[in-house]
Amino acid sequence: MITLKSAREIDLMRRSGQIAAEALRLGGSEVRPGVTTKHINDVMHKYIKSKNATPSFLGYGGFPAAACISVNNEVIHGIPSGRLIADGDIVSIDVGVLLNGYHSDTAATFPAGNVSPKAMELIEVTRQCFYEGLAQVYEGNRLGDIGYSVSQYAHRHGFSVVEEYVGHGVGTQLHEDPSVPNYGVRGKGQRLMQGLTIAIEPMINQGGLEVAQIDRNGWTVVTKDGSLSAHYEHTVAVTSNEPLILTSLS
Ligand code: MG
């Protein structure tokens, strides 16, 4: 069931989203060779707590940390650990915040040290995939318009789009209807309506689109062919006019 949000609810989501945005910025600023993924998580967790907010992911389905931190071939749901970040790694950080009953969800991929031009291109294309999708977020358009634009941009750059995991509605629940795939057919799917709040989150692979869940922890999703993967996400509200990014830095 899709729940449309009032202006007041969207304002509450924006407050939550600003904490998520700052947590992501802080986490990203800690990405460098020699740092553990746990350290990055701890900095973010501390900041979220300092704002009297709650990390949405901690305990969600049993997830053990505030942020998902996924390195190189890890697509999503990386568990922060003692793993040391190496020079040339790319580090995807995904974080959700619960404040006053409303969730927000945002992610980005950060380079550590000297990253290959190809990896840098993947990061930049993935970010732009989000903005290609965002450009379709207007009342009357459909979810297929978003997915189509995201996937076309990735494919034009020779990358593939993860289909097994998708974006989602966000609100009083971290994951609400509708699902927001990063692929689709123009003019098809759920119509976008004022008050719809969704997380658009392209997951883009350098190689094939196939992913697998590694058995080690039951969470982390990796590319099947071992190629690099990047992630970019904002929580967005459909309005009667321009879309609002609720997880941008104020
Ligand atoms: Mg999400």
Q: What is the gist of this entry?
A:
This protein has 250 residues and is an alpha+beta fold. It contains 4 helices and 15 strands.
Please give a handful of descriptors for the protein shown.
15 strands, 5-stranded antiparallel beta sheet, 28% helix, 250 residues, binds magnesium ion, 4 helices, alpha+beta, 25% strand, Creatine Amidinohydrolase
Overview of the molecule:
The model has no long low-confidence stretch (mean pLDDT 97). The longest helix is centred in the N-terminal third of the chain and has 23 residues, at 7-29. With 250 residues, the chain is α+β, with helices and mostly antiparallel strands. A five-stranded antiparallel beta sheet has the order 8-7-9-14-15. It is globular and about 45 Å long. It has helices spanning 7-29, 37-50, 117-134, 143-156; strands spanning 54-55, 67-71, 74-76, 90-99, 102-111, 160-161, 167-169, 176-180, 197-200, 203-205, 211-213, 221-223, 229-231, 234-237, 244-245. It is built from four helices and 15 strands. It has a single domain (7-245), classed as Creatine Amidinohydrolase. Strand 4 and strand 5 (102-111) form a beta hairpin. The chain binds magnesium ion. Magnesium ion is lined by residues 105, 168, 199, 201, 233.
